[in-house]
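User: Fold this; tokens only.

Assistant: Input:
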Amino acid sequence: MLSRLIIIGSALLSVNTVLHADAATNSSVSSAGSSSINIHTAISQTLEQNPTLRTFEHELRAQQGRQLQAGLSASPKISFELEDAFGSGDFQDIDSAQMTLGIAWVLEGDIRQGFIDVAQAGTSSLTTQAKIQRLDVAAETARLYIISLANQTRLDNAAKTVSLAKKTVNAVKKRVSAGRAPKAELARAQADLAYRQLEHEDVEHEFSSSIRLLAAQWGETQPSFKKVTGSIFAQPKALPFETLKKRLAQSPDFIRLMSDKRLSQAKLKLAKSQSSPEWNVNIGVRHSEARNDQSLVAGISIPFGERSRNTGNIIEARENLLQAQAKENELKVRFETVLYVLFEELEHNLHRVDSYQNNIIPKLETALVETQRAYQLGRYSYLEWQSVQADLLTARMTLLEASIAAHLKFIEIERLTGVSMTQSAKSYEE
């Protein structure tokens, strides 16, 4: 559940820091035939062309039709009555006939306004849902962008690893040729190279799939780009927790709850107005053929019996309103808790990124250089050299995973607090 609390305004992600890249890279905007795409373009195209958002537009138009219909009052009824005609004696033919032409209508009172209020509240609720959908879709685009960027980085790392494995094979081969190392070391180095090449191929497939999933966000089945711009290692910068907590009131889910609450209030008001029976009024003109005169006729119909036959609907509407109020308290507690957990996880991942970038990896890189030199001089064994290589590769992978986790947690925080993704993307490009 927490992982799905990901992106109202329009859509989300703090890509200004998340996807740090140089100005030349940032300016590359995707179009047909472009080789790369940036986060702003990806989100903009999603909001313009996403199939799910286009489908929801029809629901919005249908609701507008319901609102229009709610404003139309019941049509008056015209009636015509013929009496004392086509009988016998004095009532043969229509010589003594009486003809009445009348019009009748229902006195709706507050009921019509109740229908209008419900329809307007329904439109407001649906409009809020549309905004939430835009944020959700944009958040998913941001998440897929991060995954694509991560896979692109993995692919780059895999290529460097293959290159390192090739250099290792060449170095070991020289020592074996010189009779300073057993052939077993060469076989192990060659096996490691084959393993790294397979890893590179695996990551290629993952990257290809991730950009296909990203392009599908705006309806493309064949991606028009081959790369995404940015650096996965740029650290996102979160606002202080107390500031984020105050912004929870802007959460799309809270706004939707308020819209649902207003809808429940309108439905309760309508149910109460429908508890009173409707009166029917009619008025007309009667013509007497025998006396050749006219007279006014009028009447009213008042239902009788039980005072209210809408008690069940009133109870249902009242309970729905109380439920919406209870959900408001529930969401406040749950969202603040979720925000705290996400914030703590973000801080932890940022700390890990900083430690690996500025402390662990630089030391391992130095160790690798020294170990390789010592191996070439015959002071260290191949196993010792390979062990340092493995430690460095593991550290780089851990750094990558911590960076990915930090960015994804940041996306969830922005979604939870209702941050606009298009705004973030724009500030990133600037």
